[in-house]
Amino acid sequence: GQHGQAIEHLECARQIAEPIEDPGALLYIYTYLAGAYQHFADFQQSLRWSQRGMQFGEQRYLLTLISAGHEYHAENFNFMGHWENALEHARKDHEIGEKTGLLDRVAWGGLSIMWACHGLGRLREAMEAGQQTLGMAEVSGDSRLAVLAGAELARVFADLGDLQSAQPAAELASQRATDLNQAYMICEGLGALAYQHARRHEWQAALECRRRIAEAAEGTDNRLIPMINGPGLAEAHLELGQLEQASESLATALQTARESGSPIPEAQALRVRARIHAAQGEWDQALADFSRAIELCEQWNGRLLLAQILLNWGQLQAEHEGSQPARKSLE
Known about the structure:
Helix content: over 70%
Shape: globular
Largest sheet: none
Distance between the termini: 46 Å
Strand content: under 5%
Number of strands: 0
Structural class: mainly alpha
Number of helices: 17
């Protein structure tokens, strides 16, 4: 959880390994630097190090390093909401694994394919990629991948309306995350459970999951977890009528999304802030936030989130102005 200290140590190791061009050491150094900056939500720096790893791998024809670079590119673009870019790199990672027989590359590439397809609203493709990835993780014993694939698959099931499959998938992912006892894995497992509670309008249970995620990140310098968790935490507070807590919960997530150049997380935070404004009777501010969120989703092809924003906007407009203006806006 102390990524700043990790970066300091990795930089010292890099200064030793680069002059002698030690491929084994540089594989770990470049990928861990990319990972550490990723959890800082400093995606540009993370992309820089994954790109450095790919360049070194291409010079030496080290396919493992090239593939790992594509993996981190795909993950960063997924976190930012650059779905098309993420899908491109995820497929390259997946293809290298298939050509070389590196099954872990196939599996981790499949995870990012699932994430990207989900964000693009291609739910059947996301489900197929997720089921394949989860199966490979379980066979290989990759516990981290099993948590990530299971958690995302639970969300995909929920968005497909298959709540009977979604709930046990979320519970299993959360149990596996608890067993691993790693902050980000706990975030993913509990996040999947919170997603199910929200779908069933069980807002107190959703709030408890979101609070536990926030607690898991306490005492760390991880900025990725608050960015991901903040909108869900704020929305649970909002649905329970706790408007002040909702606003406070959202502030860091929105700031981090903007500072990191992450348009879809920004749109997600703006969607919730628009709902908070509306609940406070601040219709003009709500309209401005909804409009900006829609603009970001349209620009970055965030179809799944766009549908949710339009639904929220239509519901609030119907309450505020009547059904006819709402219908016209959504046509």
